[in-house]
Structure to design on (253 residues):
């Protein structure tokens, strides 16, 4: 039990800014196993966003409350996945070989493709949440963050890690996903969906997974697999696709 707690806290420490006990460290073995708790971390991050939205809504407009909730989730994760999405945009946008793409993705500087992609995906995320009834936004936030992280773990399971360097902090977390670990991630990733009043909500799994497959095809073609940045890009895209899919369900079902 203590070992599992340490594995979970390792995931918290790696993917968020939330303080952890001093006895939790960047152990490579625990970091590799922590990928099964990515979705649970998503529940925690989404809950923080939901709490900020709910509290802010007593004082500010819906638009400001949504913006503050987005700021909270970005801050608490250190923009970890947003950075991965921007790196993928820069890499696939500016590179024409595997080596060049990986080099661009590793560059800490933000390029035109990355800046444009990041602006657009955050804008769509904000506008999509604005379309959701206020009383549903907290649950939507929690579900979007947990489900998108589960979908990201399926990329780790299906595609090999392709960076050759050993200096990447994300390497242990981006490889060696076992089926049992994937099942644990799925359990936490899908759990918030059961809080919705209709089973039709599970239809959103189709567009979310299709969006992952779209990126996975590109990653396979250009990289031969995936990196931590690729998983971050999948998380960001599927989170937005989830919000858009929910809006579509309310309009047509």
């Amino acid at each position: 039990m203590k070992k599992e707690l340490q594995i979970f806290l390792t995931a918290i420490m790696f993917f968020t800014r939330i303080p952890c006990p001093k006895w939790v460290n960047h152990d490579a073995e625990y970091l590799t196993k922590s990928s099964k708790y990515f979705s649970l971390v998503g529940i925690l991050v989404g809950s923080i966003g939901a709490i900020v939205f709910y509290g802010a809504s007593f004082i500010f407009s819906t638009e400001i409350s949504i913006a503050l909730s987005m700021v909270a989730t970005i801050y608490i994760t250190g923009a970890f996945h947003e950075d991965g999405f921007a790196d993928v945009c820069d890499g696939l946008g500016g590179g024409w070989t595997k080596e060049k793409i990986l080099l661009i993705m590793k560059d800490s500087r933000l390029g035109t493709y990355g800046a444009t992609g990041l602006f657009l995906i955050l804008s769509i995320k904000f506008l999509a949440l604005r379309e959701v009834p206020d009383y549903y936004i907290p649950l939507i936030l929690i579900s979007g963050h947990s489900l998108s992280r589960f979908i990201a773990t399926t990329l780790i399971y299906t595609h090999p890690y392709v960076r050759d360097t050993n200096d990447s902090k994300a390497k242990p977390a981006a490889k060696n996903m076992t089926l049992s670990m994937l099942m644990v991630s799925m359990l936490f990733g899908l759990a918030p969906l059961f809080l919705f009043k209709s089973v039709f909500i599970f239809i959103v799994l189709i567009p979310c997974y299709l969006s992952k497959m779209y990126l996975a095809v590109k990653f396979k073609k250009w990289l031969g697999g995936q990196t931590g940045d690729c998983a971050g890009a999948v998380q960001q895209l599927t989170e937005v696709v989830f919000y858009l899919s929910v809006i579509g369900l309310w309009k047509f079902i």
Remarks:
- The two ends are 43 Å apart (CA to CA).
- The chain has one domain: 31-252.
- Residues 31-252 form one domain.
